[in-house]
Amino acid sequence: MLKNLLVKTRDARWMWDLFGPIYNRQIYNALFELYEHIAEEINQDGSSQILDVGAGRGYITLLLAARRPTASLTGVDFSATQVRAAERLRKRRWIDNCRFELGNAMHLPFADNRFDAVVTVGSIKHWPDPQQGIAEIHRVLAPGQWAVISETDREASEEDLRRFMQRFTAWFFWDPLLFWGLRHIIFDHSFSQQEIVSFAQTAGFRDVRTEKLATSPYVIVKAQK
Ligand SMILES: C[S@@+](CC[C@H](N)C(=O)[O-])C[C@H]1O[C@@H](n2cnc3c(N)ncnc32)[C@H](O)[C@@H]1O
To answer: Is the pTM of this model over 0.90?
Structure first.
């Protein structure tokens, strides 16, 4: 009962509007290897259009924009606070081949076949219908192109979670509570590698591959339309 309420809260837009900045401050240190790895996976030619769904503060969007000055990046998020935070970071880094806008993963505000690559990191577990969101990613991706879908691994071990936890540094995190929250509210209500593969296959992706990094308890699924 309490867990269900906390999971609902975790996924609510108002939660991201209010507490997104706390998440943003903590997560870069915890996930920078994953962002780096995915940025390398999205190996597009210079003129490509790349979309990040549930972009948050835009860490991976801005990394890709900085690495590929001739590409055009779009980050969408359903939280206005997150879109503003990403936009501020973009300006601070003087990056101008990137834009952030409000948008819901359930109905992406883009035409069919519009993008040459789509990424989403840590967002699908928050969507009311991840299958629909992944079908939306498939719809906006051009034929033959790749999407990278990464999410907290529901099957992560206790040891993985304890190692991950050490990367969070805020003074108000009390270890037993942080571990409980990560295990029961975040990871247990996420997806396994097989579930994400199955979402991608059902959405119509034809080549679906998986990866894991030793440093992040996240599933990485790479899928070609
Ligand atoms: C865990 S954060 C990940 C942010 C970013 N991708 C990162 O790795 O730092 C999840 C993000 O997904 C966004 N989000 C949740 N549900 C969404 C939806 N239905 N449509 C678009 N964005 C959503 C939240 O506002 C939040 O910024």
So the answer is: yes
